[in-house]
Design brief:
This protein has helices spanning about 1-10, 50-60, 110-120, 125-130, 135-150, 155-180, 185-200, 200-205, 210-230, 245-260, 270-285, 290-310, 315-335, 345-360, and strands spanning about 20-25, 40-45, 65-70, 75-80, 95-100. By secondary structure, it is α+β, with helices and mostly antiparallel strands. It folds into 5 domains: about 1-100, Tetrapyrrole methylase, C-terminal domain (Methyltransferase, Cobalt-precorrin-4 Transmethylase, Domain 2, 2-Layer Sandwich); about 110-200, Helix Hairpins; about 200-235, no CATH class; about 245-310, Orthogonal Bundle (Helix Hairpins), CATH 1.10.287.1080; about 315-360. Helix 3 (about 110-120) packs across helix 6, helix 10 (about 245-260) crosses helix 12 (about 290-310) and helix 11 packs antiparallel against helix 12 (about 290-310).
Length: about 350
């Protein structure tokens, strides 16, 4: 304690109400800081500290301009920005680093606190207190699609915002479950933590794998063992795919999972032959039910072709939808600007404008 009191004096830390004390040894094999960034942190260890490793770990959470204070064994203190925390000869005596806190709300714990506050019986929000898992279902779905829109637009700022909205749905549902005594946020994080470790023995254990294909094959074998351990012996490989998935996503996931255990064409020519076969069967369909069935089969094979080409079928179709929307919108704008209602335009006139929109990159 006397050593810490000395460090407190060196860094002018007066009776801190909250302060994280952490040995720099904890950062040796870390990939992110193992503490809440909205708390002040005092790192300490034996000189010389591995400043390069410390900087790389801290940069995953703090900006390069974030202020630090470094101290040497002799008590000399220097202010430095994180991005300039680079090992040099004059830093050989550095044995402590003080990290000022980020703003309130930058840790998962502080976010969990405000969500719990929203649900507080006495001073919470009337709307949030009324919510249940079922009433939040539509909001979760909406936020998921808005997140996908931001991802499809390759909009980093939009993604950051939408991931936050999605995180709110997860934490709010966790809080509702906590109040009902069903599970807690810590159960969610512990469950997925254990699952990731369990399903990546090639990372966290000494298991050799040869490429992505073998990783996926091992993944399915591990999931099969989990089903047995949980008593789900009747549950198949495809049963874990949500029935509520959009049809293209569901189709691609079914095919992905079957392929991992060897149920797949040996080469893409088989897929192409099947594609032509399904088109011919559509031509030969004799009634509505048969035609609907054959069209479904054609979609299924198209998804398989997309999978072989490492294309996400759902995203590909969404992209095509957006292109159609933009180009048809161009036709509509042209019609409005020229006082020529679309219903009065010929197909050739519309196709000419469509071609213009396409040349413009719309």
């Amino acid at each position: 304690m006397s050593n810490f009191q000395k460090l407190f004096s060196i860094f002018s830390i007066e009776a801190p109400e909250k302060l994280i004390l952490l040995s720099t040894a904890e950062l040796k094999n870390a990939h992110v800081p193992p503490f809440q960034p909205d708390f002040p942190v005092l790192l300490w260890g034996n000189a010389p500290l591995d400043l390069d490793t410390i900087r790389i770990v801290l940069q995953t959470t703090y900006a390069d301009f974030h202020p630090l204070r470094i101290a040497t064994q002799s008590g000399a203190v220097t202010d430095v920005n994180l991005g300039l925390l680079i090992a040099s000869k004059q830093d050989a005596e550095v044995n402590a680093i003080y990290i000022s806190p980020l703003d309130v709300g930058t840790s998962l714990a502080s976010f969990h606190e405000i969500v719990a506050h929203l649900r507080a019986p006495e001073d919470g929000c009337p709307w949030d207190k009324k919510q249940t898992h079922q009433t939040l279902r539509a909001h979760l779905l909406e936020e998921t699609y808005e997140t996908l829109d931001a991802m499809d637009a390759n909009d980093p700022a939009g993604m950051a915002e939408e991931f936050g909205d999605l995180l709110l749905q997860i934490v709010l549902n966790a809080q509702i479950a906590t109040e009902a005594g069903n599970f807690r946020l810590s159960d969610i994080t512990k469950g997925i933590y254990d699952k990731i470790v369990r399903r990546h023995p090639h990372v966290f254990e000494r298991v050799e794998v040869d490429g992505v294909g073998e990783v996926l094959k091992n993944w399915e074998q591990l999931k099969e063992q989990e089903r047995k351990d949980n008593g789900d012996t009747e549950k198949g490989i495809l049963d874990g795919v949500p029935l509520s998935f959009p049809a293209l996503n569901q189709s691609q996931e079914y095919q992905d999972r079957a392929a991992r255990v060897g149920f797949d064409w040996p080469e893409i020519n088989g897929v192409l032959d099947k594609l032509m076969e399904e088109i011919e069967e559509i031509r030969q369909a004799t009634n509505g039910d048969e035609l609907a069935s054959e069209i479904g089969d054609l979609f299924f094979v198209l998804v398989n072709f997309a999978r072989w080409q490492n294309v996400d079928a759902e995203s590909a179709l969404r992209g095509a939808n957006m292109r159609f929307k933009r180009r048809f919108g161009y036709i509509e704008r042209h019609a409005r600007e020229n006082g020529h209602p679309i219903p009065e335009m010929t197909l050739n006139e519309m196709e000419e404008l469509w071609g213009e929109a396409k040349k413009m990159g719309l």
